[in-house]
Amino acid sequence: LAKTTQPISMDSYEGQEVNITCSHNNIATNDYITWYQQFPSQGPRFIIQGYKTKVTNEVASLFIPADRKSSTLSLPRVSLSDTAVYYCLVGDVASGGSYIPTFGRGTSLIVHP
Amino acid sequence: NAGVTQTPKFQVLKTGQSMTLQCAQDMNHEYMSWYRQDPGMGLRLIHYSVGAGITDQGEVPNGYNVSRSTTEDFPLRLLSAAPSQTSVYFCASSDQENTEAFFGQGTRLTVV
Question: What is the arrangement of strands in the sheet containing B19-25, beginning at the earlier edge strand?
């Protein structure tokens, strides 16, 4: 099974850049890496997805090295509202043959004033 | 623009009772799935569907049934509730495999 490993928790301060690294040593050749954000009492929300190198959108950047065995989510200039749990996902092939995103335990990011 | 709608938001059941958690999406997505989230465990996949009439088991399917008679709806049935099924349940949908998934707001279920 494809699995991910992330730090359980991280602390930061407003205005700093936060980098969360995820390890996925068994990622499949055709698999993408996807990150979600979850606030308390809400469902996860898509942040960014990539296959290799670097992807950037309006909220984050995703860095993926050539071997694709890890990835780093970068949040520029975090604010208090970025306090949330961040999940790194890679896929898995279920018994029926379909691709299924597999969540790990996530990283709890706390941003301090 | 409703997205993914789950009902109810909260539910308390007695052990042995049955119930259905409802999930509906209005984005014409083929892929739908159910997850449960327990403290410190992240989200674990219960069942999923790749289209109307097609369902399959995820990581933790025991005690749950699903069916997919329409593209829009994907109900999750608890046949005989147990305290171990106390959890927060999330439904999700996506257009294709490996694309952005949209999640509902969750159903918080307590089995006493």
Answer: B4-7, B19-25, B76-78, B64-66
